[in-house]
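Structural biology now treats backbone shape like a language. To illustrate, our science desk offers a sequence and the tokens encoding its fold:
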Amino acid sequence: MKIATAAYNLNWLDSWAQYEDKVEAWVSEAVSHGSNLLVFPEYGAMELSTLDGPKVAGNLERSIHAVSDWMEDVQDIHSRLAMTYNAYILGASAPVIDGSGRPVNRAVLYAPDGRRDHQDKQIMTRFEREVWDIAPSGPLKLFDTALGKIGVLICYDSEFPLLGRALSEADLILVPSCTEALSGYWRVRIGAMSRALENQCVTVMSSLVGGNEWSEAVDMNTGMGGVFGPPDIGFPPTGVLAEGTLNTSGWTYAEVDLSAIANVRADGRVLNRTHWAEQDARVDSVTISPL
């Protein structure tokens, strides 16, 4: 397969048609390069708040509700594009109010045959829980697709190894992210690369990039696209299959062969995924040793 992962910049939108044209242009470009899996970043849907004007876009709570109100239409567009372009698309995540009272952070995976399903973020960052009041939601899902088994760990979720381990059957783990500072980008990238090492799989990181003075939520964003694997047989010695240019909008592409994942899991120089359970007895027997 060929994967396209986005470093995605937000725009001020003056009309719904402008948003439709933008998303289709991104999808069309990726597919023209042979991509059949496209990954957009966390909170990339926040640009939809601009459709309700500056007073809404500039207010955190009102912008959350505004974006949530647009999501049914957003899903219809992405379903159409996935079918038209015969590609799997992980749409940009959004705050979605689904009846639980507070919004969840939801990313939707669209299939070329029109089916779709979502993954909600599991663990909130301090900003999400203390300022946004975004709620966690579950469960973790493993999507069984024609491209292999796909899991999604939204941004901060990628920094937790037990969440990654729960997706140990995944061939691909998608990591849509939104990080304000370079340190945040590297925390998520290190998490994504660690999950690739532990599960001997491929992880795909997408980033929001650029500044948006009109938003209280996504005013500054740092990152780039990246595709990572285990630094072992069949993969680059750095584990980096592809990476973009920091804070530069556009797609990053990588070719991924599922047989390479199967081979490294069966006969890699190390077998992290197979040997995971050997940790249990070791951590249960930790003792305090005065020195």
Remarks:
- The CA atoms of residues 163 and 185 lie 19 Å apart.
- The chain has a mean pLDDT of 96.
- The chain has nine helices and 14 strands.
